[in-house]
Amino acid sequence: MASLRSVVATAALFANSVYAGKRTVPSLAQVIDQKSFNVLPTVPPAEEYNASNSPWTPPGTTAQNLTDRPFHIYDDEFYDILGPNPTFTVLAQTPKDPIFHEAVVWYKPTDEAFFVQNAGNPDAGTGLNKSAAIYKISLKEADAVKGTRNAVGKVTVTQVKSTPEIPNPNGATQYKGQLLFAAEGQGPNKAPGLIVMNPLAPYNTTVLLNNFFGRQFNSLNDLAINPNNLDIYFTDPTYGESNNFRPAPGLQNQVYRYNDKTGAVSVAADGFAMPNGITFSPGGKYAYITDTGIWRHGLELSNPSSIYRYDVKADGTFENRKTFAFIDTNIPDGVHVDSKGNVYAGVGDGVHVFNPSGKLIGKIYTGRTAANFQFVGGGRMVIMGETQLYYATLAAKGEFVESQL
Ligand SMILES: *[C@@H]1O[C@H](CO)[C@@H](O)[C@H](O)[C@H]1NC(C)=O
Ligand SMILES: *[C@@H]1O[C@H](CO)[C@@H](O)[C@H](O)[C@H]1NC(C)=O
Ligand SMILES: *[C@@H]1O[C@H](CO)[C@@H](O)[C@H](O)[C@H]1NC(C)=O
Ligand SMILES: *[C@@H]1O[C@H](CO)[C@@H](O)[C@H](O)[C@H]1NC(C)=O
């Protein structure tokens, strides 16, 4: 028995490696040696170099070659995420309008990815009254160009008119075969809420929840379904106020839980500066919530830019908040997991990948803000880059609540 086990183990080792213990670096990847920047010749003060600056460029690299080989291996565990031949493609771009911003969600029956525009951004060209628009692409079209780096013009980006219109959707997930959005609201009279949209024309919508015992939420940001009780958990920071399209907050910044059978709404967690992205681990043992308090009223560098992990109990409540990771480049906005429980965060220079213990193992580098991204079936990933739309394919696979697809 023992010898059979060791033969199997040796075979597995060889299947994963080309030369004794040394893995082949995929053509679009590069190894970043963290020892190379432990000691720098000069270290500038925060007023000159801080989380908001252009992305971290390790010694010996340039912005250009970080982008040329966008998969950055920080730890050997990242080879298993990438597989031998990861791909990375620019699918579309706009000159200015930040239409590739948030809420990436896969609709399995038509194999499309939906996403939304950056609400209230002056570059949207219509001032703060623009209610974020929803767009979609066909993943069949994306798959057809995945072998090229630049496929701009080859993939159609279609706008979808939700009816009644969802006021500033910002987070999305699958829900009972449809799409569920966290809407930030607009002005004092369009309340934030959880709104379901039919993913097929005429894209009609139904509001599930728009208040907490008669009080408006602040500006709902993101949401996730607990795979065990199917309750909807959602974050409510005050970015609507920060971005001047919602009034002063009426509630503290916190995370809620909604049970659609009983209608019960309760608070799942508080103690955040700006609770933002939320997700559950495969099987629902953990919840991950990002705190992006570093951006609240402008840049507040001593606030969190962190991912926290909670244990999720059988009754759906959270306990044991643990500091899971702190982000080096701007904020961790969207957060998602793969089927093995690795944690991915959309940050200031792309998508950072952490193993389940919170170790940074690699980056999918875009060189610009990636507020959100999502796996869209298997190892396919759509990444938002504000004016750039990216598509990556990996060996790792996304994790979904199957009953909701
Ligand atoms: C962060 O760095 C930028 C660019 O150097 C600088 O303009 C800004 O004032 C800094 N912010 C803080 C809060 O120090
Ligand atoms: C990146 O550029 C630097 C400086 O030109 C060079 O030394 C390094 O080998 C390049 N790395 C890659 C992966 O191309
Ligand atoms: C938004 O719309 C209102 C009412 O139409 C108008 O008074 C206001 O000036 C608009 N604000 C911006 C920033 O466009
Ligand atoms: C959309 O309309 C159809 C037909 O009336 C209805 O069955 C469906 O529940 C609606 N979906 C949403 C999300 O409102």
TrEMBL record:
Residues covered by the SMP-30/Gluconolactonase/LRE-like region domain: 165-378
- UniProt protein name: SMP-30/Gluconolactonase/LRE-like region domain-containing protein
Extract the InterPro entries matched here.
Answer: 6-blade_b-propeller_TolB-like, Oryzine_lactonohydrolase, SGL
